[in-house]
Design a protein that fits this description.
- This protein has helices spanning about 5-20, 25-30, 35-45, 60-65, 80-95, 145-155, 195-205, 210-215, 250-260, 280-285, 300; strands at about 20, 50, 55-60, 105, 125-130, 130-140, 165-170, 185-190, 225, 235, 240-245, 245-250, 270-275, 290-295.
- The model is unreliable at about 115-120 and about 310-315 (pLDDT under 50).
- With about 325 residues, it is α/β, with parallel strands linked by helices.
- The two termini are about 30 Å apart.
- It has eleven helices and 14 strands.
Amino acid sequence: MSKLTQEDEKVIKYLSKYKIMLVEDTKIIYKSEWYHRKRIKRLIEDGYVKKYKFYYIELDRNGRRFVGKVGKDYIKNKNNVSYMERLKELSHLATMTIDSNVEINPSWEMKDNNIYTDTARKYLAEMIVNNQKYLIYYISEKKEKRYIHQLFYDINKVFNYDSIIIFIDDFKNIMDEQDYMYFNKEHTYLIKNSSFNRKLLTKLNEIDFYEIIKDRYQENKELLISDWKLADYYLDEDYYIINMIFIDMQRLNEINWFYRENGNTNKHIDIFTLEENKEFIEKAIHKDKRCRIIALENNKLLEGENNGDTQVKEI
C-alpha cells in the first residue's frame, strides 16, 4: 500500500463530507489534467476509494477507516434515485470549497429546526462566504415545472436566511417563472452553474469592480458612490450604475417598483452583469429603456479564465 499524498488525503476528506465525487472534479485538488486519474487508480487499488456508476468515486473500507467512518452502508440510500441525484448536485457545487474561503455544509448536517423542511426538502446546503450565510438550491436542466414551483414554495417558508442562492443549469427553465421569484429576502441570487461562476464566487472580494466599471466611461466622467440606495455609483444626478454580476431578484423587484411608482422619472440606470444574464434581466425589467444592461468581460473578472465547465455525468 503506497503512502498517501496531501492531495490524496484531501480527496478522502472531501468524500467523507460530501459522500461522492466526480472523478473529473478531482483534478481541481491534484491541479493536473491527467495526474489525478493515476492517483485515483492507486487509491482504488489500495482500497481507499471505489468507483460508483463509472464516473464517480466514494469511500471504500480503508478510506472510511482513515476518516473514522464505520459501517457497511456508508451511503444508505443508493437505491433512491432522487437522493443520489442530490448527492451528485451537491458534490459538484461543493468543489467551490477546495483551496478557498468558502464553506458548504450539507443539508443533513444542518441542525437548525427553524429551517422549513419536509421529507422532500429542496435546499441542498448552507454556504458561508466572507461570514455571510446563504441557503443553496439547485435547478438542473432536467427539472420540470412542478419541481420548480415546489422549490419556490420551500423558499417562501424559510424565515431565518436572508440570502438565497439558486444555481441553475439553464435560464430557459425559469424564464417564464419570474413573477414567482420574489421571495421577500434581502437577496435572492440566480447563478448559472458553471466552473467559471463557481470560481468567481470564491474570488469576488479580490475583484476591483470600481476599476472595471469606470473604464467603460469617458475619462472626464467621475464615478462617485451613490446616495440612492438602489444603486452603487452615479455619474450625475440622473445617471446611476448598479453592479449586478449575478442576478439579484430582490434588487430587480425594487427597480421595477421604483419605475412603477415614479413613471415620469428621468433617472437612468446602467446594470453591469455577465453576458449570460442579459436576456433574463431585460425581461425582468420589462425592457425599460431607462435601464441599460452592460456585459462584463469574463477575462477582466478572472484573468485567463473562460466560461467552460466540467459536465456532470448522469447517474
